[in-house]
Amino acid sequence: MHIVTAKEMYDTDRYAMEEMGLQGHLLMENAGRAVATAIKDQVSEEDQILILVGKGNNGGDGFVIARTLLQQGYSVEVLQIPNDEEVQGDARTHREIYEAFGYGYRRFDSVDSLATLSSRKTVIIDCLLGIGVKGPLRSPYDEIVPHVNQLDAKVISVDLPSGVPADEGVSFEGAIQADYTVVIQYPKTSAFLQHTAPYYGDWKAVDIGLPDHLLRGRNKGCSVWTKSDVVASLPEREPFSHKGSHGKGLVIGGSIQMPGSVTMTSRAALRAGAGLLTVATVSKVISILASSVTEATFIPLEEQEGRISSVEGIEFGYDGVAIGMGMGRHREGKELLEKVLKLSESPVLIDADGLYALKGYLSEVKSRSYPTIITPHPGEMAHLLDVSIPELLEKPFHYSRQFASRYGVHVVLKGAFTLVTTPDEKQWVHTTGNVGLAKGGSGDVLAGMLLAMVMQPQTVELALNNGVWLHGSTADLLTEQAHSTYDLLATDLIDGLSKTYRTI
Ligand SMILES: NC(=O)C1=CN([C@@H]2O[C@H](COP(=O)(O)OP(=O)(O)OC[C@H]3O[C@@H](n4cnc5c(N)ncnc54)[C@H](O)[C@@H]3O)[C@@H](O)[C@H]2O)[C@@H](O)CC1
Ligand SMILES: Nc1ncnc2c1ncn2[C@@H]1O[C@H](COP(=O)(O)OP(=O)(O)O)[C@@H](O)[C@H]1O
Ligand SMILES: [K+]
């Protein structure tokens, strides 16, 4: 499923209209009817529905939705907010068609009369503003929106909740708080930002027949990674393969202060399918790990105050390396990382404390001949970028693309909507996973799963997306079937992974 900016949506609309002859009023008919069908799943014939119609094409959709629902016997009233003359173009055409069917509408005069009208309604359909919204709500929308938000009625927004911008990095004040949003054709970026997504409520995208291939060709494409993508791309195990063909992985990390993270990464890598796994860490951690990761082999490293001080003794013949988890933040970190990046002839995944070490070495990462992957949470990413966390979260798509292309790295920016970005700026958003993952250790498990994935016969971008999907879906399966979002532990994910594998 493609994700678009407002500009990409308008460009696609324009192409369909101007190059393909799919005229604007036809698109609006398709949109309104598809939305009406989706709305029928959310309402009953007993509902009293009020459709609020704004001045632009989002309002035009409202007239098509109203006609479609009225024809099918639903109780619908329409309140048009602007004056008659202000409604132009395709929206006006559809108001005329609506009237030609013998249906009437009211015109907005005051919030008091809206209050009277809306008090009897059980469903409000929000066709006030779509992707054309600019700046804070102006009169009378700045009064209408707060009124709608305090009603008990179920609020269903069309395309996006009015007032919420389509794009990231756009400030806004006040928006409809929808219970449900029917998105037209493609979800917009704001459906995946932590400060705007909650306005959408649950959502579903409906097809209005736009030409998909226009978006497929984009180099900066952005999509949601879904289960069908995993099913189509996850490599099958060859019957005559051996442990070597399933990837020989190395995990470098752990310290006497933090032995757990490297344990979780290693166990997760093995569960996710790594053929062989070696853990390079300080001796005391090895004695802790030996009983819990019995399948692994170990390389004891030199240490200082319980932390790795040298990677001497490692022979870098691995198919994938993960470094940083539980390693601690110390002066030697940068030197260790630098050696690992130079000597590894394989993908290197850098997580946690490794990311702090990376900051001083960033300028040289691009010259590596093998993929480099970073897996920061927003705090780590903000630190790498030298921006504040709120600034990063305003524009995670932009910052991830900028960072990935500037340094030639794959970025897995973790969060409720984990975002995978390649050095050539392709992006995928993940909607699997839940708040049960917001607990120490979940990231260590993810790092292990990703290490295993990059060693399988698939491209790095497929590996990262499949790994993030497996991690999030395992959390979802576990919180549906056995656990709650309170008690879920990172270690549960490792054992729960078998359940997820069995669903695909
Ligand atoms: N042919 C098309 O382009 C199609 C568009 N569709 C619908 O059309 C929408 C986009 O239509 P428009 O481009 O007309 O945009 P809107 O429907 O968002 O309306 C924009 C208009 O609202 C007013 N406005 C903007 N910001 C405001 C603010 N802060 N306060 C008060 N008023 C404000 C301005 O007068 C502006 O011209 C989409 O979201 C979708 O619902 C669908 O019908 C599918 C086809
Ligand atoms: N609210 C949330 N909803 C969904 N996933 C989440 C949420 N909070 C955290 N996660 C996921 O949990 C993991 C946390 O990683 P991280 O912050 O590195 O934790 P740690 O290293 O302490 O284990 C990431 O995969 C992230 O996407
Ligand atoms: K809307």
TrEMBL record:
Residues annotated as binding K(+) = N58, D126, S162
**Gene3D superfamilies documented for this protein:** 3.40.1190.20, YjeF N-terminal domain
The keyword Protein biosynthesis belongs to this UniProt entry's keyword annotation: no
Residues bound to (6S)-NADPHX are: 57-61, 130-136, 141, 159, 326, 377, 444
Q: Where is the YjeF C-terminal domain?
A: 226-504
The record's remark on the cofactor is: Binds 1 potassium ion per subunit.
PROSITE patterns the record matches? YJEF_C_2 (PS01050), YJEF_C_3 (PS51383), YJEF_N (PS51385)
Domain YjeF N-terminal per the UniProt entry, residue ranges: 9-216
Could you tell me which HAMAP family the record lists for this protein? Answer: NADHX_dehydratase, NADHX_epimerase
**What PANTHER family does the entry give?**
ATP-DEPENDENT (S)-NAD(P)H-HYDRATE DEHYDRATASE, ATP-DEPENDENT (S)-NAD(P)H-HYDRATE DEHYDRATASE FAMILY MEMBER
> Any idea what job this protein has?
Catalyzes the epimerization of the S- and R-forms of NAD(P)HX, a damaged form of NAD(P)H that is a result of enzymatic or heat-dependent hydration. This is a prerequisite for the S-specific NAD(P)H-hydrate dehydratase to allow the repair of both epimers of NAD(P)HX. Catalyzes the dehydration of the S-form of NAD(P)HX at the expense of ADP, which is converted to AMP. Together with NAD(P)HX epimerase, which catalyzes the epimerization of the S- and R-forms, the enzyme allows the repair of both epimers of NAD(P)HX, a damaged form of NAD(P)H that is a result of enzymatic or heat-dependent hydration.
Q: What is this protein called in UniProt?
A: Bifunctional NAD(P)H-hydrate repair enzyme
- What organism does the record attribute this protein to? Pontibacillus chungwhensis
Which gene produces this protein? nnrD
